[in-house]
Records
---
Amino acid sequence: MSSSGTQEFGRVRAVFWPVHRHELAMLVPMLLMFFFVTFNYNILRVMKDSLIVPAAGAAAIPFIKVWVMFPGSLLLTFIFTRLSNRFSRDTVFYSMLSIFLGYFLLFIFLIYPARDYLHPHAAADILQANLSEGFRGFIAMFRYWTFTSFYVMSELWSNIILSMLFWGFANQITQVSQAKRFYGLFGVGVNISGVAAGFFGMAVSSYFGGDHWQGQMTAQILTITLAGLGTMALYHWITTRVLADQEVSAVKEENQEVRGKMSMRENIAALFKSRYLLYIAAIVISYNLVINLVEVLWKDALVGLYPDNSDYNYYMNKLMASIGIMATVISYLVSGNAIRLFGWTVTAMSTPLILFVTSLGFFFFLFVQNSQFGYEALFGAISPLALVVFFGSAQNFLSRVAKYTVFDATKEMAFVPLSQESKIKGKAAIDGICNRLGKAGGSVIHFSLLITMGSFIASAPYVCALLMGAIAIWMYAVKKVGNQFSIMSGDAKQPLEGERPALVNGMLKEQQQAV
């Protein structure tokens, strides 16, 4: 049997469904669970932008991500760690999910209806009269603080529920040979959920119409709540019905023992003790930095084209459905097979390459839009704003497709060869802190340049230069992780240059101990 675990499958089945019959009891509920979690993620990702951007403007996003979201991420990671030290994994899972679902219900039934009384417009007007134009995003964040809280909780669903809870659970119960076959299928699940969420959002927008934004939000949050309850039910089924054999029980006991030692300080210490984990952290930080740098500029142009909440929401859901359709095809036919055929490094390197090419295109048209050498002669009657939005959407489309098909699968697979302690502590530090640090870093760049230069257009050349530097660091980290992953997972076809097999085995043991 090959290391990929697909040698015994036929050629067609190895491509489309490389799963043993006895693995279905675990894989099918995991796929459904992943579908529900990512369905909510996709719905919330559009809702938060549709709520905050038309009201506060895209300039508020960098301030939110630095001054509210990053501290919020640290707080929820701290809560996750404290709960993990005192309670079982099951209790932690249900508790963290309940915190999010409870907030969303509280928001739509109490906070949002009272928004006019809760928003400090008078104090915000005073700040606006006394601060420079560069602070307009900060003032908008403060003025619409209830929208800010919704934006933060929606964004943190990805970090806490998707990355830390679901992927942490998946990595603990999945072996390396299974991960190479299963994680590509998980990519199919997230992409199908994107299609479903996109069409659902468009249907809700069409049903309620543009004048009933609160009705649209209520319908979507109630659906999110049902999907969250379904996630809990599936988790309960897996832990009580599927994971009952002695081998998995031993893993659960080991996980519990490790969790009893968890603390924020130890999680960060574990990260800095391992170059392997530091390289994974560099990949995660770079990805989020690059995405954030481009996305804020694109959303600033997009809200100019679609200033109404409902129109903005409809466009974003339509784009999300298109991303899901394309990503589903690619994930099902390409990503899982790419890892098996070309290896981890080549597959992981495709994401920074895609973002490099698409970012070049986006910034080119952003600069051409404001150039002096005859825009009309090049593009005729096409609106400059519409063209920038189009290429920004194309960049967002391709980058999201890459994320959902290869980035998430390769990143999560990189944790699998590690010890249980390293998986838990390293993943908690990377997903809980580094993930948010990348977005906060992009936001610091944006709001620093906004305060200094006053507009996104003036700061765009500097943003472009920093983005290219981040992509270069990302590619270097991918190469380093790929080299060590091949050794630890047993995929290296030959010893490292100048090293004997026994020495490689010894290095593997040292790596596991160091981690």
---
Amino acid sequence: MTSAAAILNAAGGTTTGEERKPVNKWLVTVSITFGTLMGAIDASIVNVAVPHLTGSLGVTIEQITWVTTGFVIATVMVMPLTGFLARLFGQKRVYMTCLALFVIGSALCGMARTLPMLVFCRILQGLGAGALQPTEQAILRQTFPPKEQGMAMALFGMAVVLGPAFGPTLGGYIVDNYSWPWIFYINVPIGIVSLLMVSRFVHEPEDVRAAMHTMAERQRKNMDWSGIALLFIGLGTMQYVLEEGNRNDWFQSGEIKLITLVAVVSLAALVIRELSARVPAVDFSLFRDVIFTSGTLIGSVMFAMLMAVTFLLPLFMQLLLGFTATQAGIALMPRSLCMLVVMPIIGRIYNTVSPRLVIAFGIVLFAYTAWMMGHYTLATSRNDVILALILQGVAFSCLFIPLTTIALASIPRHRLSDATGLNSLLRQTGGSIGLAVFATLLSRFATTARGGLLHNFSGPVMQARLSAIQRMLQSRGMDAAGARAAAARMIDGQLRQQAMVISFEKLFYLSGILFLLVLPLVFFLKMPEHAEKIDVHVEM
């Protein structure tokens, strides 16, 4: 048997005497998108079930946050190891193993009846979900021909971006009509169907398998155990700080200070180790590619703003506009539906319109929507919210597809798993940082704004307003002392409400400004001349 045949057999392929016919690329896409979509949905689907989980498990809201934190930490730790695992075991095997782990974790989550058990099962889920996004991205890039790479990333983008958007809505429907375990059980039949489809339709191209087999031999002889250990410690502690920092008042907490120190030292040691290792577990040398680095950085800022705005808008609608949770969730749907329509269009025009032009337009359009939201007041209507969200959906569609396509354009096919792992990691980290920073600034800006309002309204103006409200309450039968106390509470409530409006306005403006700051990076996103010359084929 020739060495090429041996490589194919070792990777689960066929010998050269058993040539495979090409698999329909759409069957490949559907097969691997199920898992990614489920993983993306499960990152947010639990949030709406918190009241049910606290009652069923007999724990506090602070304790139940570990159900989400454990999942996110596990997911982040696996993402950058996707290329490492793909070299050792093959992309298809890694995807199927992680999908099976995700399905098993989902079933166990539904059966869990104690908090420690549920958190443990969510960590299993997260370990499985971590490699799904990067592996799908790599497989799609290897499956679609160069002229259809934009469409491939449009399909990937719909799963990654729309999953978190539809998660709370789907979770709310399941919890209201069934019971909380079904938000996990629903993954089981879908996961089994996906596993069967992947086993039947997804196969790695010969050149990728051969290159990865060669790299795997070197990797086995130079296993980077210290790099993997530093990766787990660094990313785990960093994600813990981002998830729990705001609840622990950040660096006022000794625990957060210590864990932050561990995270900084571990991540610094990780970078040094991986840049000097003979065969690094995480290939940071990919960041020497200016196109990959620029696209990944813009993508991480995009996800930071996406997560921040997705966090802020429902709060604004519920706290200040009087929307219910369901109404707020429905109001967010136009953005997701708009992305569902626009993403395939952007994928179609990718090869005819300069990606840099589309990305720049998306950045400017998002900044414009942030300016629109910065003008929100207590009189803002539902239509005003929806208009900004629709435009934002167009903006994110213009960003996600060209970014994920061009960022990987100059990456060799056998290194795509490494690149997509790092790309997914920075997107996830960017989203976590955006959420943590904006959640912290929301309360701090509100406190500062309230102090300013108190200063401006003190003196005769405040006394006149207080007296007017007191007289109104007394005219309705309330005694003088009670009326004065009630009037003071009403004014304080109005001040707090206006302070929150000012805080939201500042944060909306800030999101637009931060996005505009990465606009210069678009200059580096030039499609490599050799990108269209890659011969991409699909084998069955």
